[in-house]
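[step 3/7] fold_predict: job queued, chain A
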Amino acid sequence: MGKADQTIQLTMAQAIVRWLASQFIVIDGQEQRLFGGGFGIFGHGNVTCLGEALYDHREELPLYRGQNEQSMGFAAAAYAKYYCRQRMMFCTASAGPGTANLLNSAALAHANRLPMLLLCGDTFITRLPDPVLQQLENFDDPTFGVNDAFKPLTRYWDRICHPAQIIQSLPNAIATMLDPADCGPAFLGLPQDVQGWVYDFPVVFFDKKVHRIRRSAPDSREIADAAALLASAERPMIIAGGGVQYSQAVSELTAFAEAHQIPVAETIAGRANLLATHPLNAGPVGVTGSDSANAIAEKADVIVAIGTRLQDFTTGSWTAFSAGAKFISINAARHDAGKHCSLPVVADARLAIDELATAVAGYRCPADWTAFASEQRKKWDEYVAVNVAYGNRPNSYAQAIGVVNELCDSTDRVVAAAGGLPAEVTANWRTLAAGTVDVEFGYSCMGYEIAGGWGARIAQFENQPEQDTIVFTGDGSYLMLNSDIYSSVLSSRKLIILVLDNGGFAVINKLQNNTGNESFNNLIADCPTIESPFAVDFEAHARSMGANAETVANPAELGEAFKRAKAADKTSVIVMQVDAFDGWTTEGHTWWEVGTPHTTENEKVRAAHIEWESSRAKQRRGV
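[step 4/7] structure written:
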């Protein structure tokens, strides 16, 4: 009997784990395990069977113990982002609330096109013990449960009703997560009884598999159309998104821009495509952008969008561009390439850039346009230099960012998310090395910061253990999800965490005020149900989880504390109060569509509504 006919009897859970351990990928010519391991919290829905299988493979697939399922998912997303979607982690949670806690994580990974495998407990397929602990009964459809909520949040979904099913389902899940166009989270519901059922699996199913991520070549006609449009441009610009990094096309993007002297603006996800000092770096674009990039966008006649889904913060809710501007959109995903009547080039970014460069060989952007872009960037740099400076001014996010930017190593990784910090980091951070900034704003999920920092640090430790992962978080996000300070200490994955305390949800308070509303229920001081406001002792809290921690009074003290954190061998938390009203970056913003009351008796709100709506005339209508 040949190997092709040999079988091995395993439980469904054992077979899943053995198969995952046999998956590899080639990165820069080197084979590595596709899965760096996993994050897990056990419960009755996954501990007895899946837990038994994971124990036997704990060396090949290290399991990091999370403190909260949602934060585990955030850590897995940040790990995949660090590896530009070439490696990933799995997350396992118990049935019921443990799995439901991963819903936000799945949504974040879906919005950001990031791979993660969710191995989640499910109710018994036989239904003999129903209803079981933590089972949410659906009275008219017993097949429908909590796990079905993941269907719109994942790119691949399956419920494993028989062990043999994984022979098809596991390869399909991996193929989805490694597909440049369809990349996103995959979900496998694992009924508690089926996890322990046995099946005679083909031995060859567990043979070592080496994956390579597909690079889709562009259609020659799409390249020809794009080249003809670009060659006609008098004021072209490039908008570079996160897909540039996922395609490892930073060098190709840089060479293309240099060859044709086209200014490059970055999206939030595309921050750190170009160094801050590159002469063609026009700055970040959009609502949380720069005056320089937005001035260019307003005048550009042809925009080459590469690896971006053109969300509203990039486009200023589609008011950042002139009515006659034409878009060329290079994207591996057809869904993203055709947005707003763009001329689509559905292809891998690296291959498409190279072919477009050949097709427009000899084209060079008019010198006066490049000079205009350069002058605008010079003005923006001057503004940022003043904005991050400190002295006789209230403490601000920008000042803290400037201090860290000055003292960090070039390849340290910066992580931020949601709240006011994405705008402040995007606008004020000066990129020192490509691919070193992770500002999670695809789903804008508060709580990602520390958890994402932990996941990024796990990945970074595998490659650059001497470098640091630096987390910027506000007090609001810290209070939502902070327990991975403890995780980082337990796992010896050092973080440097800056907690910038502005007394509540200050950026939403700013939006509230900017739309004519009074401060209400955002800042702690403005909550009518709070009788005795007090400040949280973040330093003491962080110390209680085993981290080094200190509180500083100003940016100068923050700089000295940051030096101590760099020298330390474990997680350090630095706390500084910042001003909730006067410390914001005031320049660099485009219009952003926000729903404001069309009728009100409040004159301030009415006036703000009229002022807000006055910019709507600039909004493109999909063409």
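[step 5/7] annotate
DSSP finds 23 helices and 23 strands in the chain.
Residues 8-211 form a domain with the Rossmann fold fold (CATH 3.40.50.970).
exit 0
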